[in-house]
Amino acid sequence: MTLFTIIFLPGYSKYQDLRQKNRALEEKIGTLQISNVRLENEIKRLHKDPAYMEKVARDKLKITKTGEVVYKIVEEDK
To answer: Is the dihedral of CA 9, 13, 19, 23 positive or negative?
Structure first.
C-alpha cells in the first residue's frame, strides 16, 4: 500500500491541480463569451442607431453640438 501511495500520489495531485485549473479556465471562457456578446451587440447598435451613437459620443467622449454650452458642476471639498 505504501509503495502504491508513493508511486501514484504525485500524479494524482497533479491531476487534481489540472482539473481545478481547467474548471477556472472554463469559467473564465464563459465570462468572456458573455462579454463578447455584449460588445458585439453594442457595436451593432452603434452602427444602426444614430441616437445611441450620439448618446455615447456625448457621455463618453464629451462631444457637444455646435452652439451648445456645457456647464460643469464642481463640488467643494469639506
So the answer is: positive
Collapsing DSSP to helix, strand or coil, 56 comes out as helix
Quote the CA–CA distance of 18 and 13 in Å, as a whole number: 9
C-alpha–C-alpha distance, residues 21 and 42, integer Å:
31
Contact (CB, 8 A) for 58 and 64: yes
pLDDT band at 4 (very low <50, low <70, confident <90, very high): low
Q: Give mean pLDDT, residues 53-65.
A: 87
- List all residues 6 or more positions away from 78 whose beta carbon is below 8 Å from its beta carbon: none
Q: Which residues contact 70 (CB under 8 A, 6 or more apart)?
A: 62, 64
Q: Where are the domains of the chain?
A: 2-61
